[in-house]
Design brief:
The chain is an alpha+beta fold. It contains two helices and 14 strands. Strands 1, 2, 3, 4, 5, 6, 7, 8, 9, 10, 11, 12, 13 and 14 form a 14-stranded antiparallel beta sheet that branches.
């Protein structure tokens, strides 16, 4: 059975970091389930024609793209009700590939980065709805890696640190929205040290 998969980074759904560690793990698991099954089911149900336009969710966003043997295989665009782009990207044999761009309803970019075989790869940049940069860092095979920086919606740096194997690692530094230092934390492979 062939199917189509759409992946959305969790940051796009939950744009503000939860500081309770158990909540973070729970949210990640919930988002994995939702973001894997829901879009896949929608695309699978709509498969069967060469060119398709249909509903992606309850906000009545429409999408357009081509299917080959019920597998997404072309440039795809999801639109808001007014027809402006919500998500644009490329599928190759059912896999998200290359550059993908997500937009806020006001037309500002929400996120931009690349996929390789349905996994985020390379530098990803996310923006607040007001256009200020929100997050920037790299992915390798779908896992956060290397240095990441997060900014408040007023443009001041909010936090910075390193990911290793998709987990917080090393020193993380936090600042208040006014730019004043808040605290540092030490992490070891996703485990809080101090």
């Amino acid at each position: 059975m062939a199917y189509c998969v759409v992946s959305l980074p969790a940051e796009l759904i939950f744009p503000y970091r939860a500081y309770v560690l158990s909540s973070i793990s729970l949210l990640k698991e919930i988002m994995k389930i939702i973001l894997t099954l829901f879009p896949m089911a929608l695309l699978w149900m709509s498969c069967g024609t060469r060119s398709t336009t249909s509903m992606i969710d309850e906000t009545t966003a429409e999408y357009e793209g081509f299917l080959t043997s019920r597998i997404a295989d072309s440039s795809w665009t999801w639109n808001f009700d007014d027809g402006s782009p919500r998500v644009t990207g490329e599928y190759v044999n059912g896999s998200q590939e290359g550059s993908w761009t997500y937009y806020w309803e006001n037309g500002n970019k929400k996120a931009q980065g690349s996929f390789s075989q349905n996994r985020q790869n390379g530098v990803w940049t996310l923006w607040h709805e007001n256009g200020q940069k929100y997050k920037e860092g790299s992915y390798e095979n779908g896992q956060k890696t290397g240095d990441w920086t997060v900014w408040w919606n007023n443009g001041t740096k909010g936090e910075s640190g390193t990911f290793r194997g998709g987990k917080w690692h090393g020193t993380w530094t936090y600042w208040n929205p006014d730019g004043k230092f808040d605290r540092t934390e030490m992490w070891n492979s996703g485990n809080f040290v101090r």
